[in-house]
Amino acid sequence: MPEKPHLNVVMIGHVDHGKSTLVGRLLLETNQIPKHVVDKYKEEATKKGKGSFYLAWVMDQLKEERERGVTIDLAHMKFDTKKYYFTIIDAPGHRDFVKNMITGTSQADAAVLVVSAPDGIMEQTKEHVFLARTLGVPQMIIAINKMDDTKPAYNEERFNKVKEEVLKLTKSVGWKEKDLQVIPVSALKGDNCTDSKGELGWWKGPAFLQSIDNFVVPSKPTQFPLRWPVQDIYTITGIGTVPVGRVECGVVKPNDKLIFLPSNRPDGVKGEVKSIEMHHETLPKAEPGDNVGINVRGVGKGDIRRGDVASQAGTPPTVAKSFTAQIMVLNHPSVITPGYTPVFHCHTAQVACKFEELVKKLDPRTGAVKEEHPKFLKTGDAAIVKIVPTRPLVIERSKDIPQLARFAIRDMGQTIAAGLCIEIEPRK
Known about the structure:
Elements: E1 6-12, H1 19-29, H2 35-47, H3 63-68, E2 75-80, E3 85-90, H4 98-106, E4 110-116, H5 123-134, E5 140-145, H6 156-172, E6 180-184, H7 208-213, E7 228-229, E8 232-236, E9 240-246, E10 257-261, E11 269-278, E12 281-283, E13 291-297, E14 309-312, E15 319-329, E16 343-346, E17 349-362, E18 369-372, E19 382-389, E20 393-394, E21 406-411, E22 414-426
Parallel strand pairs: 1-3, 1-4, 4-5, 5-6
Antiparallel strand pairs: 2-3, 7-14, 8-9, 9-13, 10-11, 10-14, 11-12, 11-13, 15-19, 15-20, 15-22, 16-17, 16-21, 17-18, 17-19, 21-22
């Protein structure tokens, strides 16, 4: 494995604003993919009348993504810069696929928000900015893309206007300007992506490649017990069952005894680590931030599922019978009342959970109590609520293991709220 520090970066932003194209450009310019492969994609894309999509095809491996021109699933790719070794998570921007985007964003050390210069802020731009903040992403580049497509092309005024709008939006959800970098790019033409400013001669700041080297490696929470949420489970011939996911906290090594909860058995599924792989290379251990596949002896494919969490056998994760959370209602068409049961997205789990009790309404700015036992909550409200999952869910208190305390709440195809778990009643 390279000795450089490792960072997970998630690409977010509205559908069609050029996320996958920017990643494709990056991989091409840093020689992670051979030029002849890109030329082949260009030829195929042109034949299908989708000439401008060819760089996106590098990440969009699924056939349906190529047909529809949208990113559906999470794609992971690695690439190196002078300073870091990156895993790029290309998250879907289309609203139907936000649940995959939430999984990707909750795995990231940094984000790149791609905003199209001609379009400016769109619906998903707002949702993604809010989710990145809520899911704890500490730093972000705002890449104002498609500068070749402004009227006139490469217009500095348009860049400044979009920049101002986006900074206003990020500030409104709690981002600090010191954690943000804003740059102009044209992913399709390559201007200001790597070394060449191209037609963006007026831009005196860094290119995209230098900007991602300005990211800071967050400290790794290795002092916590292991928490490794399962994202997918593969069966590999000659090896066996290989769960895949990102280590959130703690460390895992070969021969460790693991327990998976809630799993398909009430007392959890136990197994032993045989080997650990990342990007097809064997690792001596996996640490927080590593997106790994682990071959676990004694665990069958049917025993565990996405959303289960693995830990060392002696420090099992908490399975909640109910929990108390502090939430912020982002966008609800009417009101939230007790009994409402939307889907909670917590690490890789997606579980319908019932609002059992609205405990108190808070002032979103100060956190002071505004009302005890409110009858309902609406858009813009902050509150303390009691939640009961409809099926077993691993969640932790934010003061114990913050990495597993955050969640987003979705219903009717949109993110309606987000929050943090503050107290838990564990299941017996």
